Amino acid sequence: MSALTKSLTGFGFGVALTLAATTSAQAAGGEGCGTFTNADGVEEHLACSTAPIDFANKGSLQRGATMFMNYCAGCHTAKYVRHSRIAQDLEIPPELVEKYLLVTSDQIGDQIDNGIDPEIQASWFGAPPPDLSLETRLRGDDWVYTYLLSFYEDPSRPWGANNLVLHNAAMPHVLMNLQNQLGEEEYRSRVGDLVNFMAWMAEPVREDRQRYGFFVIIFLLILLIPVYLLNKEFWKDVK
């Protein structure tokens, strides 16, 4: 059974590599959140803060949806998400979605699209704001969370703010007033709610995928045993 042991070991190693690669991609490539120059002119590494992602926390997702529609949807689109899906998955009554979250449309079945001409937006910001449907899958949850927490005042910039993660970002610090109104801990919590919603928006079935994936791997490991024995039986007379 040594060959079987080697096969199982190799399969397990392959699974581990796959999981490691997925984790690295989720953590913005595993390389942190960039670098910045401190007051002494020395370049320092900026570590990513861990985003509080929890799809089971419906309250957080609901607060995040409100944050997104109030602070993000005015400039950004999310064309792969429909308001009706938000109502269904986040357990928000449709009438409340229609009353409070339909800021870019009047139909609950519509996608999140502000309808602004990208060329006009480019003239405002220097580049059209990206669609945010898949932003956390592109950048990583932690990268987006750290980015939103890393704005600072910079009078030299057109909008009066800059960012440690993405230097000279075209995006203004849209959460500045909220940051000034709240304490540090509460502000980080609100940003966490926003990123939690964005992570859900990018992949609503993430928790299901991870849960089913565990059982699929167990099934494949078990299936490997009869497949190996069957293969051995088929080839036993072949020299």
TrEMBL record:
Heme c binds at C72, C75, H76, M171. Residues 59-198 form the Cytochrome c domain. The chain crosses the membrane at residues 212-230. PROSITE patterns: CYTC. Residues 1-27 form the signal peptide. Binds 1 heme c group covalently per subunit. Keywords: Heme, Iron, Membrane, Metal-binding, Signal, Transmembrane, Transmembrane helix. Its main location: membrane. This is Cytochrome c1. It comes from Psychrobacter sanguinis.
